Amino acid sequence: MITKSEIVQKLSERFKQLTPDDVKLSTNIILEEIGNALKNGHKAEFRGFGTFSTFIKSARVCRNPKTGEVIQIKAKVWPHFKPSAFLNKDLNKAKQQVSAGRKIKYKANDEAVSQFL
User: Fold this and answer.
1) Looking at the predicted structure, is the pLDDT value of residue 90 above 90?
2) How distant is the alpha carbon of residue 24 from its chain centre?
């Protein structure tokens, strides 16, 4: 996992002409604008990386498993990320490893991320 502060640190190291505060501000603005686009019903597309969008999960009726009570669940808007074909291909370059009968999770190739930093 990578955090926003780690991204800011890596960008600050790569772009020495920018202060860490400038990088932090830029990162916050980018993330804020992605959020604003989604809130306004738009997509945020980054060629070679992926697309952020939303979908509506419709209202439904469920039951509380403990009491059996009928519960109305309201419709919700959920964020969604679809990776680009390039990112998908790069992430899946690593072959699945099996160790002691257990599957090991794939680790992202640094090349996929480094092109954006």
Assistant:
1) no
2) 18
